[in-house]
Every structure is written in structure tokens, then in C-alpha cells.
Amino acid sequence: MAIIEQYFLPEEAQFLASPFPAYENALGTNFPVPRLKFSASADLAAFFYFNAHAYGSGDITCDLYWYALNATSNSVRWGVSLAVITPETDSQDIETKVFATEHAWDDAHLGTTSKRVMKATQAISNLDSVAAGDACVLRVRRIGSHGNDNLANEAGLIGVRLSYSN
């Protein structure tokens, strides 16, 4: 059994009507840093489309790579959920498909340095009956209105990785 990994970059994100996280290409000293800027106080979402290539069974692990734009402490409240359609089998309308129950969790900034890269990890067990080859949408949210989200500034999402067993 192997581990399948799928990576998503900020520029691949899709959005619903506003408000949504702004895409920005921060010009670092030595290289650009593409990011989605999630507000400190709003609930914002980005959507990533993928094929559940070679999915076997079990939870899907989601890693969110992020950094605080101008803060060195406190936590961000993240949420992830899946919507899954089996092509040529499900009769569900893709434009009205609902997401499985969201997984929400807090990830603490480890302190000392603003713009330090963090990794927020969550096992997704609400899988919406995913099977190999399914068309999937991953929703990633910062739940800025939640009481546990006390990072005072924007969070920059720089990448998403999903991993699962084949």
C-alpha cells in the first residue's frame, strides 16, 4: 500500500461571491511567495478541485501550510470539508451539491517570528463516500468569527497537501 499525495497552490483556488481570500504574490527578498490572504475577522473560503486518483480507503489527511502576515502568537481556526461526485453514477447536480460535515480545528502560531511557516494538520473522516476516480471539491476556510481564532492579523495560505492510502 502506498501513500498518494496531492498538492494545491494558492493560484489554483476558486471562490464563491465575495468576500473571499485575496490572492496575492508577495515579493520576498529572494523569491515570490504566492498566498491567499485570509482576514482576521471574517469567515472566508477557498475551493480546490481534484480527482481522487487511486484512493483506497481510510481518512484523508489535510495539511495546510500558512503563515501570519504580521503576528507572532495566538491561533487560527481552520475548517475543511469535502464534496464528492462519482461521474456517470451519481445523479446529483454539481451546482447544488452540498459538503460533508466540516472538520474544524485550531492551529497555534509557534511564536517569535512573523511570517514563520506553520503546518495545520487534520484527518478528514467525513468523506462523502469518496471512491477512486471521484470528482472532488475541497473547501478550506478560516473561521475568523470563531472565539478560538485570536490571531490578530491575516493568515497567508501558501499550500495545501492531501494524502491518503491507495
Structure, described:
- This protein has a single domain, classed as Jelly Rolls (Sandwich).
- It is globular and about 50 Å long.
- It is built from no helices and ten strands.
- 28% of the residues are buried.
- It is 0% helix and 51% strand.
- With 166 residues, the chain is an all-beta fold.
Short description:
The chain has strands at residues 3-8, 22-27, 32-38, 43-51, 57-68, 75-85, 103-108, 118-124, 135-143, 155-165. The chain is mainly β and 166 residues long. Strands 1, 2, 3, 5, 8 and 10 form a six-stranded antiparallel sheet that branches.
Name the CATH superfamily assignment: Galactose-binding domain-like
CATH class: Mainly Beta
Count the strands?
10
Topology as a string of helices (H) and strands (E): EEEEEEEEEE
Write down the oligomeric state. Answer: single chain
Q: How far is the first residue's CA from the last residue's CA?
A: 6 Å
Q: Please state the second-level CATH architecture.
A: Sandwich
Structural class: mainly beta
Rg (CA only): 16 Å
| Arithmetic mean of pLDDT | 96
Task: List the domain count as a whole number.
Answer: 1
Helix content: under 10%
**Strand portion, in percent?**
over 45%
Number of helices: 0
CATH topology title: Jelly Rolls
Low-confidence runs: none
Main beta-sheet annotation = 6 strands, antiparallel
Basic shape = globular
